[in-house]
Each structure stands twice: as C-alpha cells, then as structure tokens.
Amino acid sequence: MVRVKNSTKRRKRPMILTVDSFQAVVSRLKEPYRTMVLVAQCLGLRVSEISALQWEDLDIEGRQLLVQRSVVNGRVDDVNTEYSHDHVPIHESLLKVLLAWAENCPATDDGWMFPSHLTNKPYYSTEIQKRFLKPIGIDLGLGPLGWHTFRHTYRSWLDETGAPMKVQQELMRHASIQTTMNVYGQAMTESKREANGKVVTMVLKPLKASA
Question: How many CB atoms lie within 10 A of CB 77?
C-alpha cells in the first residue's frame, strides 16, 4: 500500500451559511424542497437520510425522529453505520413544520415523507441540488450550494450555541468523537435536545418574523 502525503486533507474549506444567507436560500425554495432543507439545517441529517424518511419514523408524542435508512440513486438501504442509526430530537417548531407539510404530502404505499409527485418514490437528491440549490446559491452570490453545506453549517451553529463536543458528536451521529473533539462521556438526552433546540430557533425564528 502506498499512502500519498496530504491526500486525505480537505482541499477546499466547506461553505458555512449565516442565518441571513440561509433564510435567503429558503425563501426561494418551493415545497417539498423547502421543508427538506429546513430538516437538513435543523437536524444536520445527510440528504440520503432525509430522502429515506417515512412518516412512521416520526414520533410526535416523544418529539423525536428515527434515522434508520438511506436512499442513494434510488436505492433504499440501511444507514451506513450503527452510529448513524439513532433517534434525533425534534423541536416543537420543526414538528409544526413537518405536520404542516404532512397535510400536503402525496400519500404513498410506503409512507415516504418526501416523495416525488411523478414517481411516488424518494427524489434523486443530486437533481434537486443541480436544478435548485446550486443556481440559488450562485444567484445569491454565495457560490454553488450542495446538500452537505447544511450539515457543515449545522455543525458550525452548534459551536455557536456553546454545545459540549460530546453533545455535538451525538447530534451529528459521528462514529468517532475524533471527528469533533477528543471528549469522553455520554451526552444526556436533555442536553442534546437543548443544543438542537437552539439551532432550530436560529433556523425558524426569522421565518416567523417575516410571516
């Protein structure tokens, strides 16, 4: 085996959105892409996980969402690792957004949360990125947006809330804490809920003010 020096280093710093720039992006999106992006930014989920959500994954009473499968290029499978398979807290503001979308969501046999109106199957996320996110980002002067932009931004906003690194690791569902920081101990559920709630407030409060 030959290891190329610096081959694993990131060559370009990821784009991190401000609250204002994120709101500008959301304001230009139609459904269901708008709600998908809100879920991405409020929970830090990968787009493959968002596309694979079913309504049965939403626990309204427990205010949590089970992430257990992914969709890549139309193929449904389990999430990549046991750490990705987890419940994430749902803030009541995001819950209202999802329930509002549920009233207009096309019904499908599998209960997909974000089905294509043409196929009743999960969207190809690359097409949404190509047709909507990239052009919107360029038009706003931000640069071409990708789905992972929201996951990077979620991580950055968690930092701004002052959330402990262990809480951040569990909310991001990283396999190793080295991905965030070398901190030990298990985050308490309420600590995760509080940290996540602060990010959701950053996402959704401006939307209420402009309504």
Answer: 11
Q: How far apart are CA 3 and CA 178, in angstroms?
A: 21
**At residue 45, what is the residue type?**
L
**Phi, psi torsion values for 160, nearest 5 degrees:** -65, -25
The whole-number pLDDT of residue 73 equals 84
- Find out whether the peptide bond into 144 is cis, omega within 30 degrees of 0: no
Cβ neighbourhood burial of 121 (10 Å; 0-12, 13-18, 19+): middle
- Choice between 12 and 55, residue whose per-residue pLDDT is larger: 55
Running DSSP on this structure, what letter comes out for residue 143?
-
145, 134 in Cβ contact below 8 A? yes
d(CA 142, CA 201): 23
User: What confidence tens digit (pLDDT) does each residue in 55-83 have?
Assistant: 999 999 999 999 999 898 888 888 776 66
Average pLDDT, the chain: 86
Instruction: Tell me which residue of 104, 100, 86 sits closest to 46, measured CA to CA.
Output: 86
C-alpha to C-alpha distance for 44 and 155, rounded to whole angstroms: 7
What is the pTM assigned to this prediction?
A: 0.83
Write out the H or E segment, with its range, that includes residue 50.
Answer: helix 47-51
In contact, 57 and 12? CB cutoff 8 Å: no
Domains of the chain: 19-210 (1.10.443.10)
Residue 7 pLDDT level (bands cut at 50, 70, 90): very low
The whole-angstrom separation of Cα 127 and Cα 150 is: 17
